[in-house]
Amino acid sequence: MSITTKRGDTGTTDLLYGKRVPKTHPRMEALGAVDELTSALGLARLQAHEAITLSILPRVQRELIAVMGLVAVSAEDYARYLKDGFANLGESQLEQLTNEAADLEQSLPPLTDWVLPGSNGSPAGAHLEMARAICRRSERAVLSLGDACPNPILPAYLNRLSDLLWLLARKEEMI
């Protein structure tokens, strides 16, 4: 099947399982924000020097693909989504982000002032700060779905991820 179907030329697009929505639908805004976040993390990976950043970001990008799948499925199709074996997120992924952030925070010196993105010349740090801001927008977009979002962990996951990205940026800026 070609990527060019022309089905979206009229301003609508498919969700999983064939439901169509306008491209301006809040679900599509959330999908776009998470997609942008995944790409921003790719840029950060290309610039990163710290082992912890290089170990966390690929996993997070894969988890964000799961987030996109969960956002692209309607609540009434969620059981089918799970039955079909698509990726889901749960407490274990949330706990992993929480623990990584706590460990990283303990390894960093205390803050004495506001952090200015890119102030220490680290491209990775600046990219991570941009990704953090996109992550916050993704969180707001997912929250706007309310009960239409089938997995209630997604807002908390994105909230924790933005914290972790801020800490990773601080770590990269220490080079």
Question: Describe it for me?
Answer:
Strand 1 (about 10-15) and strand 2 (about 20) form a beta hairpin. The protein is mainly α and about 180 residues long. A two-stranded antiparallel sheet has the order 1-2. It is built from 6 helices and 2 strands. Helix 1 (about 25-45) packs antiparallel against helix 2, helix 1 (about 25-45) runs antiparallel to helix 5 and helix 2 (about 50-70) runs antiparallel to helix 6 (about 155-175). It has one domain (about 20-105, about 120-175): Cobalamin adenosyltransferase-like (Hypothetical Protein Ta1238, Chain: A, Up-down Bundle). The mean pLDDT is about 95. About 35% of the residues are buried.
Question: What is the compact description of this entry?
Answer:
The protein is 61% helix and 3% strand.
Shape: globular
Structural class by sheet pairing and helices: mainly alpha
Query: Which topology does CATH recognise?
Result: Hypothetical Protein Ta1238, Chain: A
Q: At CATH's second level, what is the architecture?
A: Up-down Bundle
Determine the number of helices (DSSP H or I, runs of at least 4 residues): 6
CATH superfamily: Cobalamin adenosyltransferase-like
Mean pLDDT: 93
Q: State the order of secondary-structure elements, H for helix, E for strand.
A: EEHHHHHH
Percentage of β-strand residues: under 5%
Largest sheet: 2 strands, antiparallel
Low-confidence parts lasting 5 or more residues at pLDDT below 50? none
For the biggest β-sheet, the strand order reads: 1-2
